Fold DUF4806 domain-containing protein.
Amino acid sequence: MLSYTINNLQTQRDVSARNEGRNINYETTEDEDLGRGEDYFKKYYFYVSSIDDRLRKIEKNPVIVPNKEKDSLIKSFLPITSIVEMKNFEQLKEDKINLQHFHQYVSRIGGRNGKETLQRIYKTVFSNKFAVLCSWLGHRGNFAIKNLQTTIVIKDIILGEYADFKEKDIESSVSEWFRLAKLRLKRENEK
């Protein structure tokens, strides 16, 4: 099988070289031909492996067709304005289907970069009235959001979409967003 693959690759190389007008050196040793064939084989093996990995990832997380009914259910909870609403919303997401629909809904919000996307998602999910009551870790009697299912889903979306965005970046951006909630609420009330 390997010798057939190597011969097939060499034939393809010869045809492409002829098409490009290059001279082909047929005076190569079997070791050189085998080495080139192995290089081609490795190259294609890694390419096929990367495609296989992507397909496995897609199969693991099946695409959910947008459902207006589920979207309207999720939208009816948003933006969250109180701790009670937050707890009810967390219970809603205990159902795996609702969790997947929330994931899909939030992933469609988007932005130009990780920080902007994160801010747009938090603006959609949390009201400023609720954000004043929260912090990342829950210091000073605030409601902690770090370990909520909502936060975990949002983190997964950001880390999946923006490879250069790290968990530390998420923590600092979210902490800043919640820290500035009081100022945003004040401006919102002045309008």
